[in-house]
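# step 3/5: fold
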Amino acid sequence: MRPNIKPEWLSIQDLMILTSLGRTKCYELVASGELDAIKVGRAVRVSRASYLEWVRRQRYINVAAGE
């Protein structure tokens, strides 16, 4: 049985799934420096820690209050 290991680095596809954002927006977040990333050959990988910190910094909107 394979252990459930969470990778340290996320692909853009992983990021798209986690955030429900499009490919272009994900690349914009990397290009702007909002998410730490590395490039391995042609592949871009985003740091999981950077992603979690980015999520923490986002402002939550109270939909019921109409904000």
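# step 4/5: annotate
The first strand starts at residue 9 and ends at 11.
# step 5/5: archive (pending)
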